[in-house]
Amino acid sequence: MSVLVLAEVDNGVLSPSTARIVQAASQLGPLDILVPGSAEAAAAAAALSPVRKVLRSADNALADALAEVLFSLAPGYEYVVSGASSAGKDVMPRLAARLDIQPVTDIVAIDGDNHFTRPIYAGNALETLFDGQAQHVLTFRASAFPPAAIGNAAPVEVLEHPVISAARFIAAHRSADDVIDLATAQIVVGGGVSFRSAEGFQLIEKLGKILGAAIGATRAAVDAGYAPNDWQVGQTGKIIAPDLYIAIGISGALQHLAGIQGAKKIIAINSDPEAPIAKIADVALIGDLFEIVPQLTAELEKMGIKR
Ligand SMILES: Cc1cc2nc3c(=O)[nH]c(=O)nc-3n(C[C@H](O)[C@H](O)[C@H](O)COP(=O)(O)OP(=O)(O)OC[C@H]3O[C@@H](n4cnc5c(N)ncnc54)[C@H](O)[C@@H]3O)c2cc1C
Question: Quick one: pLDDT at residue 181?
């Protein structure tokens, strides 16, 4: 009943979501973790309490190469697991195809005995399914699980394997140096197309900085070029589950709501009291965002709420 987790490494650093995936997957059995690349990330993975052994693979392995590494390791494991992130979505279907099994994706709860809960219809319903296959390829939504505790020193084994890849890794660039991970952020400030420009969006970035929040955006804002693609929240963007989501100038289209259903509290700032987001928000501030957001930011600054 052993489990192999694929860790997510971001610019050489173990992504915070990995601790959550490890915590979730540890419910399935004794757990090893495959860490692509960096020694620093491998050491961070070894510190996670449920980890039995860290397997460290070659640096900068791309999705097709990682799928091959997982494929070679898979016979030793009943479960192969990753986050339901862009990286997981890139690797796990390739692995499932190689193993000729059906993956179960976007799991938000383990209900015991290979029963899993996952959202369907863009998050409008939850299904519980039984995976009756002999081996399982699973992806978990990190935001649905707490992080694993740290305080372990699991052994790290370096894997010697050829990197078999049709593509060649050239470089990775981070867009900003202090970006907070949307998938695991406790506070997210989201902006819509009503910010009217990339410069307008800086209002939201300033507020987000003061609150120590990650920044999200609607697809309309991303399509208009006001926010980068990796800020998109929703059905075709990221799924978030913060303690607080502040939705500013966002109508609350179904496809956006699909990404924020895990938010514990929602504050909406919108000029239209009839906007769908205003109806589902815990608090709705009705007014012009170009007045409210600078005022709110200035008040928080005055109060010294700088995280
Ligand atoms: C297949 C598919 C997938 C999609 N996936 C996604 C997805 O993943 N994520 C996503 O977000 N969308 C997605 N969409 C798009 C979605 O349907 C909406 O078009 C989009 O979410 C709307 O973005 P918005 O709220 O910024 O814009 P709008 O719907 O135009 O809303 C703007 C809001 O701002 C308010 N407003 C305007 N001016 C001000 C002001 N000065 N002050 C305060 N409030 C103001 C308005 O009252 C309105 O409520 C998808 C669509 C399709 C078809």
Answer: 81
Nearest to 99 by CA among 4, 206, 212, 195: 4
**pLDDT at 248 (0 to 100):** 98
What is the position in ligand 1's atom list of the atom closest to the CA of 218? 11
CATH numbers and ranges of domains, the chain: 3-158 (3.40.50.620), 182-302 (3.40.50.1220)
C-alpha 181 to ligand 1 mean position (Å): 22
- pLDDT, block means (10 residues), the chain with 307 residues: 92 91 97 94 97 89 90 97 93 97 96 94 87 98 92 94 79 68 89 96 94 96 95 91 95 94 94 97 97 96 72
Whole-angstrom Cα distance, residue 81 to residue 140? 8
CB neighbour list of residue 62: distance below 8 Å, 6 or more residues apart: 165, 167, 169
- Identify the helix (H) or strand (E) that includes residue 87: helix 86-99
Instruction: Kindly give the number of the ligand 1 atom that is closest to the alpha carbon of 251.
Output: 49
- Torsion angle (degrees, nearest 10) of CA 201, 222, 236, 13: -70
Question: What's the pTM?
Answer: 0.77
Instruction: Cite the DSSP H helix spans in 196-248.
Output: 198-211, 219-223
Number of other residues whose CB lies within 10 A of the CB of residue 113: 7
* pLDDT for residue 307: 54
Please give the Cα distance from 101 to 104 (Å, whole number).
10
Candidate from 203, 230, 255 with most ligand 1 atoms within 8 A of CB, to mutate: 255
Positive or negative, the CA dihedral 244, 248, 251, 253 is: negative
